[in-house]
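Supplementary notes (optional reading)

For those who missed the lab, this is the record we used. Protein: Alpha/beta hydrolase. Length: 293 residues.
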Amino acid sequence: MIRDPQVLDFIARTEAAYPAEANHAGPAQNRRHYDAMCAAFRAPRPSGLAVEDRAIAGIPCRVYGARTPVFVLYLHGGGFVVGGLDSHDDICAEIADATGLQVVAADYRLAPEHRWPAPLQDAQAVWRAIDRPGVVAGDSAGGLLAAALCLSQRGARAPLGQVLVYPGLGGRGDAPSYSQNAEAPLLRASDIAAYHHALHGGDAPEDPLAAPLLVADLRGAAPAFIASADVDPLRDDARLYAERLREAGVPVRYRNEPELPHGYLRARRGSDRARRSFQAILAAIGSFAQGAG
């Protein structure tokens, strides 16, 4: 249940630009609606922040800030169907400004034109091309990508930490949040199914990294900070992944955000709840970058 007037206002503003039925439209129409919504919330970049678009390992990227000894790889959300360098531009700019770290946003390939594992291959290519220690962060679909990247890079090239924000992690849909929040604002259980079909077609994915929550052995994964939205079908993916990481001996901090829906990072300027969560996310990124884990 959401009673917070700031959050209710955020939901109304989002739905005015991005109606619920857009998730079941064709990809081109869905992207038009999503881009319009992102533009409505997009904040100016912090003054003086250098930003450059360039290809890294052949993948279009946007780089925020000058080179730093530790960088942040940011992987945007959008169900693997929508989103890009502009959709999360202000979020990435604020991360770079607040942490003092260089942020690299990767414009990975989208479904249904490019199905799994294309998005992960792009994220891996960018990660491997930057020969410095780094933290990987992502929201929603980008959270799944960040988790999958960490599982694929255990060992010498492991990230210093992973920051997952309301991630979908490949849960089977039988956890309580899928039924309790089946008709949640901004993301419904049926939307998740539609995005899954776009990414994988009608078949179950064979690659275990497509569902990090179901990977048998999580030992050696990067230390994690995981934030979930309480009013979100994906809430329990985050909770259960945090539990599984702990069981595997991986340091993890988990926080669930009451009265917040999926996509709340865009509410960080208008909602006290979202602002506090974003501050915790910034602190986690900074902590991992310092090696504090």
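If you only remember one thing from this example: DSSP finds nine helices and eight strands in the chain.
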